[in-house]
């Protein structure tokens, strides 16, 4: 198998994986739909940074230790599950409080104060950096991403080519596809902002996303 063929084949596999709705999709849609554009792109960049790290570590042979060590895998799995449950519960509780405050005293004045000159929500404190940290931790604390790369990446590296360079090149294909799909997700979520400006809709969005995130955490905890 030539490197060009390997790149196209890997692009097809990870493309299907990218299009499959999951935790990354939920986080990007929720953050962008609530008007936190900088934070949403921070989440996107954090997720793709994690993907690049997993692919690079796999190419260097480091993540093979993860699949060989049951204890290491279990520690990372439970840390990831705890983080997701904590984040999901935080979404549900925090947005309920914010939404109630908007409903009690927000009105048009509150809505205007929370918006920029073009009706965009002001970026939350540390928007880009905060989103990047959230996306990165969500990706790195999911051991299944590492296991996926350990299982799949070597199969697409042609014989006779530098293993590390080929692995990083394949990972970059995954990152590019993830970024392109994120553009679609952010654009779709932005189209819903008019409806999501209502406090009840914002509360519903956070509750649904929070439940989804908690569900992923519980699934990660109970899966083997």
Automatic annotation (TrEMBL):
Residues 103-125 are annotated as: Disordered. InterPro entries: LeuE-type. It is a multi-pass membrane protein. The keyword Transmembrane helix applies. Keywords: Cell membrane, Membrane, Transmembrane, Transmembrane helix. It is found in: Cell membrane. The chain crosses the membrane at residues 6-29, 41-69, 75-92, 163-192. Its main location: membrane. This is LysE family translocator. The lineage of its organism: Bacteria, Bacillati, Actinomycetota, Actinomycetes, Kitasatosporales.
């Amino acid at each position: 198998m030539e490197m060009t063929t390997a790149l196209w084949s890997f692009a097809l596999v990870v493309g299907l994986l990218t299009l499959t709705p999951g935790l990354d999709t939920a986080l990007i849609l929720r953050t962008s739909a609530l008007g936190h554009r900088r934070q949403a792109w921070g989440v996107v960049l954090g997720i793709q940074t994690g993907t690049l790290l997993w692919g690079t570590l796999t190419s260097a042979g480091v993540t093979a230790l993860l699949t060989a060590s049951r204890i290491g895998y279990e520690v990372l799995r439970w840390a990831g599950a705890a983080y997701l449950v904590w984040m999901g519960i935080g979404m549900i509780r925090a947005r309920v409080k914010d939404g109630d405050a908007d409903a009690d005293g927000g009105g048009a004045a509150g809505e205007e104060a929370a918006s920029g000159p073009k009706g965009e929500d002001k970026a939350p404190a540390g928007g880009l950096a905060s989103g990047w940290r959230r996306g990165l931790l969500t990706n790195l604390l999911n051991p299944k991403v590492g296991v996926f790369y350990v299982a799949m990446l070597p199969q697409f590296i042609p014989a006779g080519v530098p293993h590390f360079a080929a692995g990083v090149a394949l990972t970059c294909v995954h990152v590019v596809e993830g970024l392109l799909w994120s553009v679609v997700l952010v654009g779709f979520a932005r189209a819903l902002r008019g409806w999501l400006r209502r406090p009840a809709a914002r509360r519903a969005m956070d509750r649904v996303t929070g439940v989804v995130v908690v569900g992923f955490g519980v699934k990660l905890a109970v899966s083997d």
